[in-house]
Design brief:
Number of strands: 9
Largest sheet: 9 strands, mixed
Distance between the termini: 54 Å
Helix content: 25-40%
Structural class: alpha/beta
Number of helices: 10
Radius of gyration: 20 Å
């Protein structure tokens, strides 16, 4: 279907909105309402129920019965990567975006992304973290503040790595940007990250948190060097700084959230700090005289 935007300026292209859902009954109404209220009307809302055990599926089905733009995909639980991949398989429009079930978007989220879209470029907007006071306006690795071209994803068989619940966003985005020519930024916080209490992965101790974060940044560094041709460590200063911050956060997780005896926790951190990757990180930062605020 080709129509006009509310502004009467641009022909409309179908945008798929993919929402992975798992036990989100307390947040779905706000999320779905914010999507259905979009000023950009030519979209398909793909709600993927990932084996929820609460009332999420019933809520999704109720919305679908009232709005023909909604498609509900019901599947066994497989994790957020599996749910997003199921949404990708159901896409038919030119563009797609992702929204998490516990977040909300501004009324012009789709229209702003579409109006700034350029063929062969990744379009992204600001991402507001409402858990901070005042709310933080940031750009992040999440797929939830980006407009993707469906063609690029399908022609290159891109997908999220099943089984990962952390780091899958970065890996997907690195795969995607290998096939685009650049970025277009909408300098507005159109996406709102809401941090539901007790549900966020970041609030739960994960024994593999250090390993996952370390693997993410090793992947990012390889991408910068091999795909982007960045060989000078000075040009990677920003990556190293964020890398170190992430590692220190992981150490703090072990020391404060791990239920092991104090001696065991200290030994874990000592082993991480003496590992090859962390020692290389410290060496690179010292070579560049980078000072990190501890």
């Amino acid at each position: 279907r080709n129509g006009l935007t509310l502004e009467g300026m641009l022909p409309m292209e179908r945008i798929n909105v993919i929402v992975p859902v798992y036990n989100a009954e307390n947040y779905l109404q706000d999320c779905i309402t914010s999507i259905l209220a979009q000023s950009y009307s030519d979209f398909a809302l793909i709600l993927v129920n990932d084996g929820s055990t609460d009332g999420s599926l019933s809520i999704l089905q109720d919305y679908a019965a009232k709005d023909g733009r909604i498609l509900v995909v019901d599947k066994p639980n497989g994790g957020v990567s599996s749910a997003r991949n199921a949404g990708l398989a159901a896409c038919e429009g030119k563009y797609l975006v992702f929204v998490d079930a516990d977040d909300t978007v501004e009324r012009d989220y789709l229209s702003q992304l579409y109006q700034h879209a350029q063929e062969g470029r990744l379009t992204l907007c600001g991402f507001e973290d409402r858990a901070k006071t005042p709310p933080a306006f940031v750009f992040i690795n999440s797929p939830c503040n980006k407009l993707y071209e469906t063609r690029i994803i399908k022609e290159n068989a891109l997908s999220f790595q099943p089984g990962l619940s952390m780091g899958e966003d970065l890996l997907f985005n690195l795969d995607y940007i290998r096939h685009v020519e650049g970025f277009t930024v909408v300098n507005k916080p159109l996406y709102h990250y809401c941090h539901p209490n007790g549900q966020s992965l970041s609030r739960t101790y994960r024994p593999d948190f250090y390993e996952i974060n370390n693997a993410q940044y090793q992947t990012l560094l390889r991408y910068c060097r091999e795909a982007c041709g960045i060989v000078e460590n000075s040009a990677l200063a920003g990556v190293y700084d964020v890398y170190l911050s992430s590692m220190l956060y992981a150490f703090d997780d072990v020391l404060t959230l791990d239920s092991s005896p104090k001696r065991t926790r200290h030994r874990k951190v000592w082993e991480f700090m003496n590992g090859t990757d962390f020692q290389n990180l410290i060496r690179h930062m010292r070579e560049q005289n980078l000072i990190h605020p501890l």
